[in-house]
Design goal:
Oligomer: single chain
CATH superfamily: Alpha/Beta hydrolase fold, catalytic domain
Number of domains: 1
Distance between the termini: 26 Å
Helix content: 25-40%
Strand content: 15-25%
Structural class: alpha/beta
Number of strands: 8
CATH architecture: 3-Layer(aba) Sandwich
């Protein structure tokens, strides 16, 4: 029988480097004001200064900024493209719908562009609470429609991929559903979904995690959600894709660590994805915290290699 290897959830499956990283992150977080007690603008400014667990922001000269039409003015997209791309990867950054930016992902997106031979288009969608739901999803939908229409002319390829991290993974699934339901499009052949939030009413792992802060905690998740969308909408399929009809979606790689409060989100979405008749792989990493693949540890290297292989295969 197939399924998830139960050994990945055992404490002894966590390698020393991962355990040491989690301990270091938790120590750093304990010395900083919890983000759910701060203003988003202050957190964004601190991130641009390179403060906190993520360290300095590294941008790459290969990236160029484009402006494309959006539902409420122009949208900025950050493009990293090799010569003669084999495809186009539409990317949405993480940050709880309230933080983050496309240029924060330059290093990871350059790796994907170079190792997969594809153009990466990363979207600076509007952020909450200044622009709550549906602003961010609307921008992502508009960016996807632009890529569908312009990929061949701009990049020389109509092979389209989609994905993102955390809130970006959520936005990728919402975008796929909007393209299917609003535009009759099934243009993307693969979805790369890293530790996303797919039930904004909170899955059990998110709701029961508590105060422990290894990147995320239950209060932080609740704060992000409150900034983004009011409670009565949180189980609407356009907000929480776990409750949507998932038929007709592309092959997906869902990546998550066992020390991530959003573990259930990926596990549940994987089950519903394949139950809807789609192809998917669930990759669960022992001890991986939220965002684990952005840190210099062995499981990050292996996970990133798997992502590259998935995107190249698509």
């Amino acid at each position: 029988m197939g399924g998830i290897d139960p050994r990945v959830f055992l404490a002894e499956a966590i390698d020393p480097a991962t355990a040491q990283l989690n301990e270091a992150i938790e120590k750093i977080q304990s010395q900083l004001p919890p983000i759910h007690l701060q203003e988003p603008s202050s957190i964004r400014a601190a991130r641009e200064r390179g403060e906190g667990v993520w360290g300095p922001i590294v941008t790459v000269p290969e990236a160029r900024v484009r402006r494309i039409p959006g539902p409420n003015g122009e949208i900025s997209v950050r493009v990293i493209a090799p010569e003669s791309p084999r495809g186009v990867y539409l990317h949405f950054h993480g940050g709880g719908w309230a933080l983050g930016a496309a240029h924060h992902c330059d290093v990871a997106n350059l790796r994907i562009a170079q190792q997969c031979g594809i153009a990466v288009v990363s979207v600076d969608y509007r952020l909450a609470p200044e622009d709550p739901y549906p602003a961010g999803p609307d921008d992502c939908e508009a960016a996807a429609l632009w890529v569908v229409e312009h990929a061949a002319r701009e990049f020389g390829s109509e092979r389209l991929l989609i994905g993102g991290e955390s809130a970006g993974a959520h936005l990728a699934v919402v975008t796929l559903l909007r393209l299917r339901d609003r535009h009759g499009l099934a243009a993307f052949s693969a979805a790369n979904l890293l530790y996303g939030a797919y039930d904004l009413s909170l899955t059990p792992s998110a709701a029961r995690w508590g105060e422990r802060n290894v990147i995320l905690s239950t209060p932080i998740i609740e704060w992000f959600t409150e900034n983004f969308v009011p409670e009565p909408l949180r189980r609407h399929p356009d907000v929480s894709p776990l409750y949507a009809d998932l038929a007709g979606l592309p092959s997906a790689l869902l990546t998550v660590g066992t020390e991530d409060p959003l573990l259930d989100d990926s596990m549940y979405l994987y089950a519903r994805w394949i139950a809807a008749g789609n192809v998917a792989e669930l990759s669960v990493w022992p001890g991986g915290a939220h965002g684990f693949n952005a840190f210099p540890i062995p499981i990050a290297e292996r996970s990133n290699a798997q992502i590259v292989s998935f995107l190249r295969g698509a």
